[in-house]
Amino acid sequence: MSNYSIQQVSEQFKALGNPHRLALFQRLATCCVPGTVCNASDANSFSVGALGEGLNIAPSTLSHHLKELHRAGLIMMRRRGKSVECWIEPAVLEAMSSFFTAPNSLEN
């Protein structure tokens, strides 16, 4: 996780500590077929409405959780007309993975 500080990683894991946020992040983390590498143009994005389907989260609560994930730098958001799209940049998943494989690369 080069260029990441312990504080940044801590904020990301804090955001993922909520079960609803973790479920949203997991749903977004399916940016490409497992075992492959995708770039930003290949990453799947979800509208906020589609992302919340089946999670039994009120729209205002869903919005709050997505803002917290965005604030922590875990997801990207973009307005398209009346809808908002959310996605995870592949680099975020790579950085999180490297936390577990190279933990000494974090800056204090």
* Mean pLDDT across residues: 79
Q: Figure out the total of helices.
A: 5
CATH architecture: Orthogonal Bundle
Strand sequence of the main sheet, in spatial order?
Answer: 1-3-2
Level of helix content?
40-55%
Spell out the helices and strands N to C: HHEHHEEH
| Number of spatially distinct domains | 1
CATH H-tier superfamily: Winged helix-like DNA-binding domain superfamily/Winged helix DNA-binding domain
Report the principal-axis shape.
Answer: globular
Per CATH, the class reads: Mainly Alpha
Biggest sheet record? 3 strands, antiparallel
Based on secondary structure, the structural category is mainly alpha
Low-confidence stretches: none
The fold-level CATH name is Arc Repressor Mutant, subunit A
Number of strands: 3
| DSSP strand content | 5-15%
| Rg of Cα set | 14 Å
Distance between the termini: 12 Å
Search tags:
about 110 residues; mainly alpha; Arc Repressor Mutant, subunit A; 3-stranded antiparallel beta sheet; about 10% strand; globular
Can you describe this structure?
The two termini are 12 Å apart. The chain contains 5 helices and 3 strands. 47% of the residues lie in helices and 11% in strands. It has 108 residues and is mostly helical. A 3-stranded antiparallel beta sheet has the order 1-3-2. It is globular and about 40 Å long. The protein has a single domain, classed as Winged helix-like DNA-binding domain superfamily/Winged helix DNA-binding domain (Arc Repressor Mutant, subunit A, Orthogonal Bundle), CATH 1.10.10.10. Strand 2 and strand 3 form a beta hairpin. The model has no long low-confidence stretch (mean pLDDT 79).
